[in-house]
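Page 47, continued from p. 46.
Same chain as before, 391 aa.
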Amino acid sequence: MGLNKKIAIWGSTGSIGTQTLDIVYENRDLFSVETLTSHVNINKLFEQALKVSPEFAVITGIKRDQIWIEKFKEAGATLLFGKEGLLKAASESGEELVLNALVGRAGLEPTVKAIEAGKDIALANKEVLVMAGDLILRKIRKHSVKLIPVDSEHSAVYQCLAGEKRENIKRIILTASGGPFFRKSIEEIKSAGVKEALAHPNWDMGKKVTIDSATMMNKGFEVIEARYLFDIPVEKIEVIIHPESIIHSMVEFCDGSVKAQLGNPDMHVPIQYALTCPDRLSGKYGSIDFSITDKLTFLKPDTKKFKCLDLAFKALKLGGTSTAVLNGADEAAVELFLGEHIKFIDIPEIIQHALNEYKNILNPGLNEILNADNWARNFVYNNYSRKKDKL
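Result:
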């Protein structure tokens, strides 16, 4: 691998961002960080800037503050504010690869700007492809940049497809841990609170992603991502429950051969591969001890218990702005659940309600996609945020 690869880390103070910086700190001669961003955690952002001296630091959820501008200037960074600052950095900073670990729809517009500026994208933000997969594919092709997956499941597929012809793919099999409620009954799930839903058995993730894992909407989003990352029809994508999270995903080919990528459930590994592929770096993230890995379990997902997975498949087949509505309604519903306005079991019903009420738009542009997402959020907030005692 060449020295001093210039990268941006969007969402640097979150789970994926901090793990990315772990890799940078371990390999300072290989990476130069040009941009760091955070929503509101400016103290942590400043600590990171002191260590890597980016060209730009962006804080999107705090108003312009001259004191902080001066502090970041002393650290060698220009501090930018708000959505406008993020879009400016996406267009003007000097990195060759952007690791997008932003949360939610906030990652979409700057990703478009970065692609238009000729930058490769290492994508850890599901919503970019969930909301605007067709649009992003068109932009990627037009500007001849790479779209590299960061999520462990898609990284696994990406690695399994290395050297293979796409026309030989029979199916992509995405594995799912099942989350905290896989072995729970529907009655137990109905009484689940925020604490129980956030208790993921295998992965350390942010709250939004952890709740989506508990509903299996996270896996539904990954199905949508896989359709666009690998340009493959939804009919060739399947989901299997694999509670051990050792096999991260599989690909079956036309001759019946199956490739699987295995590894310990540690996000450092797929993050590092996204930064270096097709090269690999030595890491300290551990190896599988097959002598104590006594079983690998595979089970079909129960879409009656986890309705969000089925909703994602349906929205993808509808196409157009349906997946943007799916995303917006999910984000709003998860926010209401975390704020204890609704029950866990209400999340899929609310999303279904939004999809039923929305008039789908095929072949949408960016503004239509963003408007659909806004519509879904407003629909959920207006209909459910004040009904805690009735649900």
